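User: Structure please.
Assistant: Input sequence and predicted structure:
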Amino acid sequence: MALNLKAATLCLTSACLALLGSCENPFAPPLGDPLSPWTDQTTVGGLLENFRNAYVHHDSLRYAECLACPGYQFNYYNSELGEYEMMPRETDLVSTGRLFRHYQDLDLRWVGISDDLAALDTPDSLITFTVLFELRLDQSVLTGHANFSVLRSVPMEDICQSPIFGVEPVFRIIQWDDDL
């Protein structure tokens, strides 16, 4: 009897582990899923779409995937100090995470992106461009220009390996100059 109980427990445990191992997160569809809003970031347009979706879905992990590591910087004008300042990647991630938690309704629209720019997929080439944006934060709307420098490459350091893209060469933002 004790042997049958052990065998039954072992079988039940094995079955549960097999079931758990085969489950997928329905809230994180894989790349290539036609219902997923996420792209593989192999084009400039794909990067901008994922950047937008990160804002719309308040997804700080996907936002982090849009920023180069190492070397990313965000430059902005601090109106209180009357000067331009630079924010490194880690500070930007913390700041954007707070933005995602603070606002219920976030929407980001890119205005006037050409098809040629969106389709660019050249690896290992620095691409610099300016895009007009419209950002809605609850009831407030901000418009301005974002000057981006982007690069399609593989992360250079192990600490920067992507949990989503692995070692695939994808576009990431190297520098973002904000012009509100």
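Helices lie at 2-22, 44-56, 60-65, 89-102, 115-119.
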